[in-house]
Specification:
The complex is a heterotrimer. Chain A is mostly helical. Chain A has twelve helices and two strands. A two-stranded antiparallel sheet of chain A has the order 1-2. Chain B is mainly alpha-helical. Chain B contains three helices and no strands. Chain B is elongated. The relative contact order of chain B is 0.13. In chain C, the strands form two sheets. Chain C has a two-stranded antiparallel ribbon. In chain C, helix 15 packs antiparallel against helix 16. The chains are: A mainly alpha, B mainly alpha, C mainly alpha. Chains A and B meet through helix 1, helix 2, helix 3, helix 4 and helix 5 of A and helix 1, helix 2 and helix 3 of B.
Chain lengths: 301, 99, 633
């Protein structure tokens, strides 16, 4: 039996698309693209089912595969990372050649089976589908295959349970409240500044981003200067700015600034390692990263 | 058009699905390859049903779909579990069975 | 019945006593020896009751089988084999019972004094009682299996007693040597039992001996030779003679009881008891006689050179048992004489050993005869009793040795062809040599110049030591004559051993007697000339080749070492090496498999895709095969 011309047109439109989708599955880098390929493939298959006098299966195919299964796939892809790209470089030695060879070999063998098989003249399902395809199928499913239907139902329930059990994560520690998280954060950084750092700039006449603010005790607060400036070494010392004014103050007897009173001048450049006053969260690596970033931006300028 | 074209298409799809399983490292994509193989089989079954004028082939395809659905649930759950514990979805990284 | 039902009790009583003494431990130290003496006395009493009962009974009713606990109860029941616990009380066994219990009792008495200062005296007596029980079981048993139990029991007791002073390594080694050489003999007994069992008569004496004539000569010879091997091991006959000299490491009462009077004669008992088998196998019988003849000369030669009083006596024991074995190998004419000589020898040799023990006791445990001399005044009782024993072993009429040994020499001269001359002359020569070395022993010990140090003050032991010596000396004097009265021991044993048909020796009996006495006299004179008339040097002179050989026991140990131990060691080493080869082969196989597995392991690279590829590859191959088959079909 040959098919109608309309069916042939449909087939020849869809078949290359399907093969292309399958090849796409094989070659695309991103998993999401692969999923899209498979969705297309499956919808095409559903169409072919309908063309093959199996409208019920076609609907089921759309509902089950494209609707449920592929959605599940996409959902998992989101869990794993939607934009994760797969490297196509083969890591197992010989695997690519082997896979291609076996794929082609399988195709050759299957086709040779088809070539060697004398298929009977196609009967078509017109008679079988007289009462409508779903009705006819239902007769067989709930008649001859009733037990199998029940068993498959059990299987589905089991699978649903298995999905729950396998993905279930047992909580082994009590859930932490906001309060506990806060106290933990404080305990982790003893002596660190909890509040936002004060704005830079000590003296009104300077009002520069590169000058540290002074604390209530009169000491300059290093971290009030932008991190980037500090790493670039562009921060200025409070003493540097204070300069002659300090001497004035000392002679004037205004002795409420202990730091300047001692005359100790902080180093002009930040220490290579973060001192005790550096924010503990900022470890050496991070600083290096920032330095690199800064250098990059400078270079681009 | 000969009806066997459907079968040829199914076989091509099956071979491509197999190759996907063999070549793709991402567990999810390999799994999709398996789904493609199942679909190819279903297509062949439906075609056989048409050739023989017997709906049993469609029934079989139906069962395949149901079982495939169950399989997908379990398989994806396993992939998720592995991903959680190892932060990877590559089948090559689950190679603790190495002799 | 004539008191035969006492038979189990004479075994059980000393066994119980031994068990009690061994289990009671140090608590029994104070009274243990007296318990042992009492047990042994009870045995003697039982034995005496049995013998007198049998003596009084009708001659036809003098044999009895005593089952224990009741008749019909099998001790071993396995398939066709059924061995009851049955004791055979007949003239032969009660003779042995009386000898063992009598000599045993006297030696128990003697040991009470002899071992008085030994901290382990209780253990010693436990072993002695164990020995008595085992020996009585040996002679009373009615089957080879039960006899074997007794046989091993006396071996065990002998081992324990030789190595009694096992703090000295040499003593322990001597015990081990005796045990090992006895084991070789035991293998013979086991093999004999296996051969007899295969014949289907069971292992009881009655059916086996009755069916002996139907064994066929080959089987009978094999069984006989196996039994002879057992007898050689137990009785220290060539070629298993090497242990007896070393066995003198044990306390002297042990040497007297076990290694002179009783246990070492068990081999003779075994041969005589199974005489029916040997009669069915003339070749085996001839070998018995040859072994006896060789041993009697061997022992005599060794005895001539030894300076150790106990070792000389041990060599003499070997030689005298050689006489018995010779007699047992002569056939029906000799059985009774073998037993006769065994009994008289048991008395005079035990007496001699006790005398030697007395001398050692007096001389501070010295055994070197070159350092004795002139003890006759100091140890008069020992002197007289040993002197009587000496005359008895020489065969001077009318002492007991004369009656028994002369009969054996006479019997050795019977027969036709070369046999009487070979055996007879060997026996005759042995008598002469015996006279020489025993006289040498006697003269060197009691007469002549004092050669011991001045700080040694020999004195007789207590009456407990003197009494047994006196009684045994009296036995040495009178027993031979007593046992010839009224039909004598020959007639007494005839129901068991058969009536000896009288045969004329190839030389007239009076002439033989004269020749024997002349040779004995010559031997004695030679000893007198060498060891009394001329001074005995304290240090042994180097001597010629023959003397050196005899001193070294005719190189028996070197012989054993070279011919048995060294090849055995080679064999063992070879086996070890071959085993190593086998091990290596299997180990190599294992390593090969492991290596192959190691290489194959790499196929399991853990990559699931490789596994999938393998599976699909397999599927392809299988499908291709199936398709090609279909295409062809």
């Amino acid at each position: 039996m040959t098919t109608s011309a309309a069916e042939a047109v449909l087939f020849w439109c869809l078949a290359p698309l399907m093969v292309a989708a399958a090849v796409g599955l094989l070659v695309v880098r991103r998993a999401v693209h692969a999923a899209v390929c498979v969705v297309g493939l499956m919808i095409s298959v559903a169409v072919l089912y309908i063309a093959n006098q199996a409208p019920f299966l076609g609907v089921v195919q759309v509902v089950v595969y494209t609707g449920a299964v592929m959605m599940l796939f996409l959902f998992v892809l989101m869990l794993v990372g939607v934009d994760s790209a797969d490297s196509l470089v083969e890591t197992i030695k010989g695997q690519r050649g082997l896979g291609v060879t076996f794929g082609i070999g399988l195709l050759v063998i299957l086709l040779s089976v088809l070539a060697h098989t004398d298929l009977p003249e196609a009967i078509g399902l017109t008679t079988a589908n007289q009462e409508g395809n779903p009705n006819a199928l239902a007769e067989i499913l709930y008649g001859q295959y009733a037990l199998a239907m029940v068993v498959v139902g059990v299987l589905l329930v089991t699978a649903a349970l298995a999905g729950l059990v396998l993905t279930h994560r047992a909580r082994i520690a009590p859930r932490l409240s906001q309060r506990e998280l806060s106290s933990r954060r404080v305990a982790a950084r003893p002596g660190a500044l909890l509040a936002p750092p004060p704005a830079p700039g000590v003296y009104a006449q300077n009002n520069a981003m590169d000058t540290p603010a002074l604390g209530p005790d009169g000491r300059p607060i290093e971290e009030s200067v932008s991190r980037v400036l500090r790493i670039r070494g562009q921060a200025r010392d409070a003493g540097e700015v204070a300069g002659g004014r300090e001497a004035e103050r000392l002679t004037a007897g205004h002795d409420h600034l202990p730091m300047t009173a001692t005359g100790v001048v902080p180093p002009a450049h930040p220490a290579p390692h973060p001192g005790p006053q550096a924010p503990p969260a900022l470890d050496a690596v991070e600083i290096e990263d920032l330095a690199a970033e800064a250098a990059e931006s400078e270079a681009s300028e | 058009m000969a009806i066997t074209n459907y079968l040829v298409l199914a076989m091509i799809l099956f071979a491509l699905g197999t190759t996907t399983v063999l070549l793709r490292r991402n567990a999810i994509i390999a799994f999709m390859g398996i789904e493609v193989m199942l679909n190819a089989t279903n297509l062949a079954l439906v075609t056989f049903a048409r050739i023989h004028g017997d709906l049993t082939g469609q029934v079989l395809a139906f069962f395949v779909m149901v079982v495939a659905a169950a399989e997908v649930v379990v398989g994806l759950a396993i992939i998720v579990t592995i991903f959680r514990s190892r932060r990877t979805a590559s089948v090559d990284d689950a190679n603790r069975l190495a002799g | 019945m004539f008191g035969a039902s006492l038979a189990p009790w004479v075994i059980v009583v000393p066994l119980l006593s031994a068990t009690l003494l061994l289990l009671a431990g140090r608590r029994a130290d104070r009274w243990g020896h007296w318990l042992a003496v009492a047990a042994s006395g009870a045995c003697l009493l039982g034995g005496a009751v049995m013998v007198t009962g049998m003596w009084r009974a009708d001659p036809a009713a003098r044999q009895a089988l005593v089952s224990w606990p009741t008749s019909g109860v099998a001790w071993i029941s396995a398939g066709d084999l059924r061995v009851p616990l049955e004791l055979r009380v007949d003239q032969l066994s009660v003779t042995f019972v009386l000898l063992v219990t009598f000599v045993g009792f006297l030696i128990h008495l003697y040991s009470v004094s002899y071992m008085a200062h030994d901290p382990d005296r209780r253990r010693f007596f436990a072993y002695l009682n164990l020995f008595v029980a085992a020996m009585l079981l040996l002679v009373l048993s009615d089957s080879f299996v039960l006899l074997f139990v007794g046989w091993e029991g006396v071996g065990l007791a002998s081992y324990l007693l030789i190595g009694f002073w096992d703090r000295v390594p040499a003593n322990a080694t001597a015990g081990k040597k005796a045990f090992v050489m006895n084991r070789i003999g035991d293998m013979g007994l086991l093999a004999a039992m296996a051969l007899l069992f295969a014949q289907g008569h069971g292992l009881g004496f009655g059916p086996v001996l009755a069916g002996a004539s139907g064994l066929g000569e080959g089987t009978a010879t094999a069984v006989g030779l196996c039994l002879l091997l057992a007898a050689c091991g137990k009785s220290a006959q060539v070629p298993l003679q090497a242990w007896l000299g070393d066995a003198m490491a044990g306390p002297t009462p042990v040497s007297a009881l076990i290694h002179a009077a009783t246990m070492v004669t068990a081999g003779v008992y075994l041969v005589v008891r199974s005489h029916a088998i040997f009669e069915a196998a003339p070749a085996a019988q001839l070998v018995v006689a040859i072994v006896g003849a060789i041993t009697l000369l061997y022992g005599a030669v060794v005895g001539c050179a030894k300076d150790d009083i106990k070792k000389t006596l041990a060599a003499s024991t070997m030689s005298q048992i050689g006489y018995m074995m010779l007699a047992a190998g002569l056939g029906p004419i000799g059985y009774a004489f073998a037993i006769f000589h065994l009994v008289t020898h048991g008395f005079f040799k035990a007496g001699l050993f006790l005398g030697a023990g007395s001398v050692m006791h007096a001389m501070g445990d010295s055994t070197d005869m070159r350092r004795f001399g002139g003890l006759s005044r100091l140890l008069p009782v020992t002197y007289v009793t040993m002197g009587l024993g000496w005359l008895a072993i020489l065969g001077i009429p009318p002492l007991s040795g004369f009656w028994s040994k002369d009969r054996i020499i006479e019997a050795a001269f019977t027969g036709v062809g070369l046999r009487p001359w070979v055996f007879g002359l060997a026996a005759l020569l042995g008598a002469g040599v015996t006279a020489f070395y025993m006289t040498r022993l006697f003269f060197m010990t009691f007469l002549g110049r004092r050669r011991f140090d001045d700080d040694v003050h020999p004195a007789e032991g207590s009456w407990l030591m003197r009494l047994p010596m006196i009684i045994l000396a009296a036995g040495s004097v009178a027993l031979g004559w007593l046992l010839t009265l009224g039909g004598g021991i020959t007639g007494w044993l005839a129901p068991v051993l058969g009536e000896p048909q009288h045969q004329e020796p190839v030389i007239a009996a009076p002439a033989l007697l004269a020749a024997t006495l002349t040779l004995v006299l010559l031997g004695g004179l030679l000893a007198w000339w060498r060891y009394l008339r001329s001074a005995v040097p304290v240090e042994a002179p180097p001597g010629n080749l023959a003397v050196r050989a005899a001193r070294a026991d005719l190189y028996q140990d070197n012989f054993n070492e070279t011919l048995v131990a060294v090849p055995g060691r080679w064999l063992t080493r070879g086996l070890v090496r071959s085993e190593r080869g086998v091990d290596g082969a299997f180990g190599g196989l294992g390593r090969g498999v492991a290596g192959a597995g190691e290489r194959l392991r790499r196929v399991q690279n853990g990559y699931v895709r490789t596994y999938a590829a393998t599976a699909i590859g397999g599927l392809l191959v299988l499908t291709a095969i199936v398709l090609s088959l279909i295409g062809r079909g």
